[in-house]
Amino acid sequence: MSAITETETSAARRLDKLGVIVAAIALIGLFAQPFALSRANRIVSAEGVMLWAAMPLAQAIALIAFLMAVVAVILLKTPVNLRLAAAVAAIAVLALMVGRAGYYLMPDDNPYARVSPGGGFWIMLFAFSIAMADAIVRKQLSPLARIIFLLAAIAAIGALLWSGAWNELSIIKEYENRADAFWREGRIHVALAFGSLAAATVIGIPIGILCFRTPPVRASILNALNVLQTIPSIALFGLLIAPLAWIGRTVPGAAEIGIAGIGFAPAIVALFAYSLLPVVSNTVAGLDSVPRDARDAARGMGMTGPQLLFQIELPLAFPVILTGIRIVLVQNIGLAVIAGLIGGGGFGTFVFQGIGQTATDLVLLGALPVVGMAFAAAIILDALVEISQKKKVRRP
Which end of the chain is more exposed for a tag (fewer CB within 10 A), N or C? Predict the structure, then answer.
């Protein structure tokens, strides 16, 4: 019994704790969920196709063997470079083979047929993405290396789409039918997310400085912003319709610049309102974190109040303020989807059109770019926060 126990303990020690969870998720996607979905047209119910039926049998066997090898690498305590390479390779191969499934399953006699990635593909993609992110964290890549890795991933996705490997998948067909609208709504989505962030930064940082300099007003301002933050997004969009419609009707020139009850104006105002609390609170927290010795030394050198603020306090508080900006940008990229409900444009237009038409791939056409934008923004701003923190440590 003791020998058996020692063997089990030794085997458990060779297993990676996170790898066990990731491997279980990947195996569920591989064997319990369809790899692709096939439908006679874009709105009828889909028929799930397992991996071994979604492509020629020899290719399916090779793919299953490869994925099982990757699962083994992730499951065991293997070198981090091997784990990273295996996860990246698995993601790349999955992306290529789901495109291959599109060509294999698409009938020649039905131009309206649709083939899309199934639950198994998305589950395995999720599992191997977790493994890749975990390996990147374990490698402790520098901020610049993480940004380069992100750029390489964007280039790989662009090469995949440019190659035509996904041309038979329904999400690409949805894009081809709406290419002009896709880029137009994309520009609007970026304008909503970054425009509201810029306004919140320009207004929120001075308010944060005011709260820091004037403690009696700090609680009232932060409490008011906290109440504003608790209003559900759809409700806030709705509450803005009436006052902005009145402004558009009664204020000369307001309608000409786009202020109306529905559309872009209420969307960007709502996003701005949601953005204020993180910017203001992080500005206050960053200024609070400035060491008292730094202030005393600056005053001892004869610095004035504005010099102390701009040369000492704000530079030292910048990493915390930038963290708030990161939170706002990622939040706004996601919340801007709701703008599609009130005619504000953005990728939410495709999401809600797809929901209304029961067209899953149209929903994905709007949702996937939003996920990608939020993911990229988080990586870039996390890197900038880390760089600014290192500069803060080196600052004399």
Answer: C
CA 246 to CA 248: how far, in whole Å?
5
Are 346 and 181 contacting, i.e. CB atoms less than 8 angstroms apart?
A: no
Q: What is the DSSP string of 377-391?
A: HHHHHHHHHHHHHHH
Task: State both tokens at 307.
Answer: 């010099």
User: Domain segments of the chain: what residues?
Assistant: 2-163, 179-394
How far apart are alpha carbons 273 and 229 in whole angstroms? Answer: 8
Instruction: Give me 284's structure tokens.
Output: 């206050």
Q: What CATH fold (topology level) applies to the domain 179-394?
A: MetI-like fold (1.10.3720)
* pTM of the complete model: 0.86
